[in-house]
Design goal:
There is one protein chain. This protein is α/β, with parallel strands linked by helices and 307 residues long. The protein has one domain: Rossmann fold (3-Layer(aba) Sandwich). Helix 7 links the parallel strand 4 and strand 5.
Length: 307
């Protein structure tokens, strides 16, 4: 009897809190509709920050994406996003819920992917969730094996490490819009990335928590080679946005220097794992002995040589 009562209580808890979560999510989508009306009236903006709003994205990416999909012709309303954790905060959840896109999300954690599969979003929408640790060796196989190839609407990359190397390798999909996290701490002048390591994990690579990813200049260089225009950054200086240059998008384009925004996020840590709140060049000094790969000269140097 006691076990039965416990099971009933747990079921009731799931139902109640599930209903509350669904109601909150519905209200978020409804409220965001007001922002979208404003965004659809925008012409060519000087900065993508003018279009920002946040529904499920970490910063203002939801608004920027809505702005871009109203400027860029999208024939295949599908997306791929990796590095999503449990997908409650992501760049594409609003596309799924509001615009009814089809999507593939990938994360390296079984618990995160299990959470996504248990979420009603997985049966209410055409969402595929895959648990894999992404490398440049397996990314194309994962995409193709999940039924994604050719022309798609959007790709979002945020894996806190090999972002540059993975995007460089992708060739089974040709997204019209690409969002890629850049490491603002590396500045806007040097085209650098962390050297490729298939097992790279940000938290283990260096205790300061700042050593990861690629500079904006490196991503812009890669984007140009893959046929993309750099159309700006979000206002927090964390994500760069690219649009395929064979499309008639009419958006303002930037060089890395013009579109760079320095992140003010203070997430540095000491060897004990406690926040140290470093800013400016002190962030580079914290990891000055670590190597970076210069994509313009194919050489590896210590970060101190960038200072």
């Amino acid at each position: 009897m006691r076990l039965r009562i416990t099971n009933i209580a747990q079921r009731f808890k799931r139902l109640v809190f599930g209903d509350i979560a669904n109601l909150c999510e519905a209200n978020i989508v409804l409220t965001a509709g007001l922002h979208i009306q404003r965004i659809r009236q925008l012409g060519t903006v000087e900065s993508l920050g003018e279009a920002e709003f946040r529904a499920f994205s970490q910063w203002g990416e939801d608004g920027i994406i809505q702005y871009l999909i109203n400027k860029v012709p999208i024939h295949e309303r599908s997306f791929v996003e990796f590095g999503v954790e449990n997908y409650t905060e992501s760049n594409t959840r609003f596309l799924l819920l509001h615009d009814n896109w089809k999507g593939l999300v990938i994360d390296g954690s079984h618990s995160h992917v299990d959470f996504i599969k248990r979420d009603s979003i997985s049966w209410k929408h055409d969402l595929t969730a895959v648990c894999r640790f992404i490398t440049r060796e397996n990314i194309n196989e994962i995409l193709a094996g999940s039924g994604f190839s050719g022309d798609i609407g959007l790709l979002s990359i945020d894996i806190d490490g090999n972002d540059y190397w993975v995007w460089e390798k992708i060739d089974v999909i040709r997204p019209r819009i690409v969002i890629c996290e850049y490491n603002s701490v590396f500045g806007c002048e040097h085209a650098v990335t962390v050297p490729y390591d298939a097992e790279f994990e940000r938290g283990k690579a260096h205790y300061c928590n700042l050593y990861h990813g690629a500079s904006l200049a490196a991503l812009c260089r890669l984007a140009t080679g893959k046929g993309y225009d750099f159309v700006g950054s979000n206002s927090t200086g964390t994500n760069a946005f690219f649009v395929r240059n064979d499309l008639q998008h009419g958006l303002r384009t930037f060089t890395a220097t013009e579109g760079y925004i320095e992140s003010k996020i203070r997430e540095s840590r000491n060897e004990a794992g406690k926040l140290t709140f470093l800013t400016g060049e002190d962030r580079l000094r914290a990891m000055q002995d670590m190597p970076v790969y210069r994509v313009d000269s194919n050489t590896t140097v210590a970060i101190r040589e960038l200072m």
